[in-house]
Amino acid sequence: MAKVVGVFNTSHSPFCYMSPERWNEVRANRSLREDVPLDDLEENLRKKQRIENGFATLRRNLASVRPDVIVIFGDDQLECFDFNNFPSFAVYVGEEFQGHLSQRDANLFARGGNSQPHGDDALQGRGGVAAPARPVPQMATMKGHPGLGVGLLTGLMKRGFDPAFCMDMPKPERGLGHAFMRPSESITDMQTPTVPVLLNCYYAPQPTAKRCYELGKAVREAIEEYPEDLRVAVVGSGGLWHTPGAKQAWLNEDFDREILSYLEAGDARGMADFFDSYEIPQGDASQFIAERGRGVTGMPGFGGPQGGTREICAWVSSAAVAEGSRSTVVDYVPVYASPIGVAFSYCVDL
To answer: pLDDT digits over 171-194, tens only?
Structure first.
């Protein structure tokens, strides 16, 4: 029977891959709240090194559990789906998938090129200045695992979920989203077969953190009933608090640290309840309650923060896989130029 051998969580912000010399230049084109601190280049360089150290720590620990398959919980930001049809949950069951690499050695947001940023790489017209075009990053092909993918799909259906599924790439020219490619590039060998589980984190109305917790519990059960002897690692991708491109964006570090405390305690249900109980302060323009646009449905969200911060729900799902086991928080790095809370954690004692 298959078994879970480790659970890993990582942020995937473009600032994790961008030269820190560019951070404050990008910040200057964003609408941040006045109380967001401004780090100088020296501090940004230190923070970038901490991010690289976080990736390296997860890489070592992921390699140490020798996974046969990796399951990644991540969001889709109009890379595969669009407003013609946007499922709450989907499982990729194909033989392989493609996606863009981070182009780590180039400057994201560089002027010129023939591709516009999207998702959390763009301002999307929500109060900031439109981000300049950037070059199209290199594409990579990743192996899927149809056997386990179908096992997760049917296992979820047996447990009261009705996920969509993808046997082929919905938009081959775009590839699978950065929520899957960036952690693959940063913490895996990019050779291990991978099963993406796609969550709707950005586009209201989204599933609650409680529902994402239940999803993670069901995925754990589905993995453990899969008949093949597989070592399965699970990754949660995204977060933490960030509202890219929003008016009056800010970083709620207290919220992030509370989320991480639940991880350290092995309390995924408490983590979900805390997330869903958050009430958006009146007048907080950063929460994407807006008219319909390219990246905004115009429908009301509910159950916790809106915008990119809801990528924490991917961490809730992965934490639910490890429910009862304490995670090690590697680091929490407040990147004020975004602003975003960049974090890393792992659990290998399940």
So the answer is: 998 899 999 999 999 999 999 999
Residue among 245, 215, 240, 217 at smallest CA distance from 304: 240
Q: Indicate the length of the chain as a whole number.
A: 350
Residues 93-141: tens digit of each pLDDT:
999 999 998 874 344 444 333 333 344 444 333 333 334 445 556 889 9
**What is this structure's pTM?**
0.91
Distance of CA 234 to the CA centre of its chain: 13
Domains of the chain: residue spans and CATH: 3-347 (3.40.830.10)
User: What does residue 99 show for φ and ψ, rounded to 5 degrees?
Assistant: -170, 165
3-state secondary structure 225-237: CCCCCCEEEEEEE
Closest CA to 196 of 91, 99, 318: 91
Q: Of the candidates 233, 203, 227, which has an alpha carbon nearest to the alpha carbon of residue 295?
A: 203
- Spatial CB neighbours of 294, under 8 Å, sequence gap ≥ 6: 78, 124, 125
Question: Nearest Cα to 188, choosing from 349, 312, 60?
Answer: 60
- Distance between CA atoms of residues 217 and 316, nearest Å: 10
Q: Whole-angstrom Cα distance, residue 298 to residue 291?
A: 5
